[in-house]
Amino acid sequence: MRLRHHTNLIILTVVTLTIPSLRADSPPVAKTEEKHPVNVCIVSGEHLQAGEIVTFVYKKTGNPDRVLRFCCHKCLAKFKNDPDRYLKKLDQLESANQSADKTGK
Question: Hey, is 55 helix, strand or coil?
Answer without folding.
Answer: strand
